[in-house]
Design a protein that fits this description.
Length: about 160
Amino acid sequence: MIRVLFVCMGNICRSPTAEGAFRELLRREGLDRAIWVDSAGTHAYHEGEAPDPRAIRAARRRGIELERIRARRVSAEDFEIFDYLLVMDEDNQGAMEALCPDARYLERIGYFMDFAGESAGHVVPDPYYGGPQGFERVLDLVETASIGFLTHLRTEHDLRG
């Protein structure tokens, strides 16, 4: 089984949205039993909380369920457990590198948006302090990156579904 962890700062906006969008794509493609998906934050600001209600509403409009996700902080064990630790921005990348318990796991850390194509850039912008349009933008970005990432996984791991 392939294991994927999506990471942002507080684990209530971007990373749970990525988790939900990617999980829904896997379900539609019949690969939800081949790939384990989770999300976490580099900080424990919102540990145990549900995703931001604006993220839940925006995702629900696209048929993506986030309600069951609960925020948690990245743990040292995550670096061992997950094959891919996909971050949303440079701050998350730096925090993950600092949290990494062993240099051999550094290669597992990468930008989720690297799978969205060259013109997309590295960053999924944090919508927390903005309006509803920011959450729609995050969904647009993570849905695009999810398709690219699944294409990568199909090639790298010879997945069929």
